[in-house]
Amino acid sequence: xxxxxxxxxxxxxxNHKPFIIAEMSGNHNQSLERxxxxxxxxxxxxxxxxxLQTYTADTMTLPGAFTIEDENSLWKGRELYDLYKEAYxxxxxxxxxxxxxxxxxMIAFSSPFDETAVDFLEELGAPVYKIASFExxxxxxxxxxxxxxxxxxxxxxxxxVQEVAEGVQVLQEAGCRELILLKCTxxxxxxxxxxxxxxxxxxxxxxxxxxxxxxxxxxxxAAVAAVALGATVIEKHFTLRRADGGVDSAFSLEPEELKLLxxxxxxxWQAMGHVQYGVQKAEEKSRLFKRSVYAAKDxxxxxxFTKENIRVIRPGLGLAPKHYExxxxxxxxxxxxxxxxxxxxxx
Length: 347
Fold this sequence. Notes:
Layout: E1 5-7, E2 10-12, E3 19-23, H1 32-45, E4 49-54, H2 57-60, H3 80-87, H4 91-103, E5 107-112, H5 115-123, E6 129-131, H6 139-146, E7 152-155, H7 161-173, E8 179-184, H8 199-207, E9 210-215, H9 221-228, E10 233-237, H10 255-272, E11 292-295, E12 310-313, H11 324-327
Parallel strand pairs: 3-4, 3-10, 4-5, 6-7, 7-8, 8-9, 9-10
Antiparallel strand pairs: 1-2, 11-12
């Protein structure tokens, strides 16, 4: 059995509605005012948490180290250093963002990208840590995060089965007792075809931990489907308006879409229920509207039942339709008026 996990007082697990994370990433466009507006919009939409990324361009790479040439990338032609400089969240913003989230009843946390970021987030009292896909093989960072004793959510994008297994082992041996893995496809955006949600239940069995989805597809369909496959956590990039631009805006949800995700993912979770056959209590009244055998014409005593004088119609007050062929050719025991449901004492 996979246990519930408590994150800042909120229970996360199969017996609770999906935990929805709005990923701000660089969609603040270097404006603290916009960042706080994103927090407010996520809270208004019903998200459980807002997630930041804690790094600087200098902790990630070096100027001139790499220019993106991938034709399918949203960032083709951009130098990696410049991209991180544009996307990073200034560290001095973290405290007001965390405070605004708490005021709005949301959990705020972050993905640290080096050990100094972990120390900084500890000072802020971060209640949980996120390991990004590209850091899931950074074992020193995993050990640093695990040593905090906080729950860990780790994305599994761009990693082999062995690498994920090693990451899980490193985290657990270093003190992590509450771990959630996120199925993730590290393309931006992802497509439904490369999302492979059937991995979610398999991953849960393979590593015996809760599994969710870090979703880079457009819309909410993949995320809702993931819940039906047992995802307990959904992470989606979030912005105020895609038209405003920003490094991740093209595959981010807008407020109305995030609200739709919150509502529909909870409905999907509620609809899972349990294996059920037979008539539910809620259906009992509806049985009246099943079909049964009725007299379609006036039938005299002794007259044979035929396809012309009896019919299978609604409601279900007469003999079940399975007896229709059995009745044909038998004689009426009494006079029967058209519109009367047949019973065995009439045969």
